[in-house]
């Protein structure tokens, strides 16, 4: 179908439904859909199940056929004359929140002009609703389809995508799939991922000054915004000097408190997505390791282990240079690496890093290289290969069709990109990520004060609807 046949009607429909769409996104944002304790019939807890139920009610109210796959995910179908050929994958679960939001509370959406703040507005409730509104637009404008479209909304994308494992254990992959959970113009390469735990058993040697405990990070794919440590035997002057040097080097805020025979230190950085550790985040954990490196600690095995970590994961090294794995290729770009979890208690140290690797990465030049470097410092890394990269050829008809829809509404050429993040399509043969972030805008995904640009979402409705028509109409 020629774009000119429906363009004006589609534009008018999307603009007329702007506020309604914003209200529907806000209703979903009010649901805390962070993964919780599994219950009968609710594999990811109460919140994700409630978000699925709310979206199911919305889709059914607009006449879509909805199916619930055991509260792992739901689907909404837009029928065509023949079998469906397009799946759109999005998710309704969200990552945990901090107490440091300033614009509003995470689950109290706030609209300011054309911005909507709240956890999930950008990742991924806003884009999910935009995709649903694109299907609504095609349906309500009476544009006939030769092939059907299915919107698949999951509830475990942030914690392993077991929802899709469940779904694809029942259903087949569509001929084409896109996920509005990343960037425009289009992502056809998702880098390999290596997220590994490593450990060390350390003697409880408390010769002073010494580190007693460390607690930093909660999820491997989130750059930690805070880090806490307890020390013994440090003076106020030593703490002040190390804090000053750390703040100057890292821009993190360091505070401390003296209590009886312990010194408690708190480092405040800025959270962010581990796939983009150099995109405005301030890693509080590696800032804490720098702080420790500036202290006159006793030469215990614990001290040497922590100083070893500070050497292997120095603050600001987001590309694995200190580990000797700063790989790069022209098509998929640079490797990124972030140390995101560190726990030390009673002589047991556990840590976890998150690495996103380009197409040139192998088990030999990445996984085993990191293992060897960690072993030199006394750490043992868990076994297991990296998750392979995902790649769909840039010259495929599917990619070209999506880029044409992008170019119609953005008015400029679109080029496929590579990212470090892994989206829902990572394990699919014919899937790409398509929207909704735009170049030059940091939506603070996984961070404080996450927001979405409603103007971009309205444009996304038009683009997704145009894509549906071009592929299925």
UniProtKB/TrEMBL annotation:
Under the heading Pfam families, the entry gives: Peptidase_M20 (PF01546)
What InterPro entries does this protein map onto?
A: ArgE/DapE_CS (IPR001261), Bact_exopeptidase_dim_dom (IPR036264), M20A_pepV-rel (IPR010964), Peptidase_M20 (IPR002933), Peptidase_M20A (IPR050072)
Entry's Gene Ontology BP terms: L-arginine biosynthetic process; proteolysis
Cofactor(s) this protein requires: Zn(2+)
- Is Endoplasmic reticulum there in the keyword field? no
Single GO molecular function: metallopeptidase activity
* Keywords (A to Z) from UniProt: Dipeptidase, Hydrolase, Metal-binding, Metalloprotease, Protease, Zinc
Entry keyword Oxidoreductase = no
Top-level taxon: Bacteria
Which parts of the chain are coiled coil?
none
Family from the record: Belongs to the peptidase M20A family.
Give the matching NCBIfam families. Answer: dipeptidaselike
The name this protein carries in UniProt is M20 family metallopeptidase
Organism name: Porcincola intestinalis
């Amino acid at each position: 179908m020629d774009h000119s046949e429906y363009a004006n009607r589609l534009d008018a429909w999307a603009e007329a439904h702007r506020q309604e769409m914003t209200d529907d996104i806000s209703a979903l944002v009010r649901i805390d859909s962070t993964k919780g304790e599994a219950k009968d019939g609710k594999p990811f807890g109460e919140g994700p199940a409630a978000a699925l139920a709310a979206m199911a009610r919305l889709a059914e109210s607009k006449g879509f056929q909805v199916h619930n796959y055991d509260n792992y995910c739901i689907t909404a179908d837009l029928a065509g004359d023949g079998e469906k050929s397009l799946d759109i994958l999005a998710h309704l679960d969200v990552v945990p929140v901090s107490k440091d939001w300033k614009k509003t509370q995470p689950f109290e959406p706030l609209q300011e002009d054309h911005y909507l703040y709240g956890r999930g507005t950008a990742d991924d409730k806003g884009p999910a609703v935009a995709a649903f509104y694109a299907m609504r637009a095609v349906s309500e404008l009476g544009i006939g389809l030769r092939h059907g479209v299915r919107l698949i909304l999951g509830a475990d994308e942030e914690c392993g995508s077991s929802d899709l494992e469940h779904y694809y254990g029942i259903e087949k992959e569509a001929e084409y799939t896109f996920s509005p959970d990343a960037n425009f113009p289009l992502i056809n390469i998702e880098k390999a991922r290596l997220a590994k735990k490593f450990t060390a058993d350390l003697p409880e040697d408390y010769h002073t000054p010494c580190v007693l405990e460390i607690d930093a990070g909660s999820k491997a794919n989130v750059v930690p915004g805070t880090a806490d440590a307890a020390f013994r035997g440090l003076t106020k002057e030593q703490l002040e000097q190390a804090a000053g040097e750390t703040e100057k080097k890292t821009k993190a805020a360091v505070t401390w408190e003296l209590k009886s025979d312990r010194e408690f230190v708190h480092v405040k950085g800025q959270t962010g997505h581990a796939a983009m550790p150099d995109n405005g985040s301030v890693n509080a954990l590696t800032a804490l390791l720098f702080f420790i490196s500036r202290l006159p600690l006793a030469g215990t095995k614990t001290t040497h282990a922590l100083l070893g970590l500070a050497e292997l994961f120095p603050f600001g090294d987001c590309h694995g240079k200190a580990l000797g794995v700063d790989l790069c290729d022209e098509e998929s770009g640079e490797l990124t690496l972030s140390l995101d979890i560190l726990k030390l208690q009673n002589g047991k140290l556990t840590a976890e890093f998150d690495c996103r690797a380009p197409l040139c990465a192998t088990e030999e030049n990445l996984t085993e290289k990191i293992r060897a470097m960690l072993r030199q410092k006394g750490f043992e890394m868990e076994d297991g290969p990296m998750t392979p990269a995902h790649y769909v050829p840039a010259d495929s008809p599917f990619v070209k069709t999506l880029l044409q829809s992008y170019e119609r509404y953005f008015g400029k050429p679109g080029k496929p990109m590579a990212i470090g993040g892994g989206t829902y399509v990572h394990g699919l043969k014919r899937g790409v990520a398509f929207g909704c972030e735009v170049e030059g805008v940091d939506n603070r995904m996984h961070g404080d004060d996450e927001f979405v640009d409603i103007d971009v979402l309205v444009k996304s409705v038009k683009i997704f609807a145009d894509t549906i028509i071009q592929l299925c109409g």
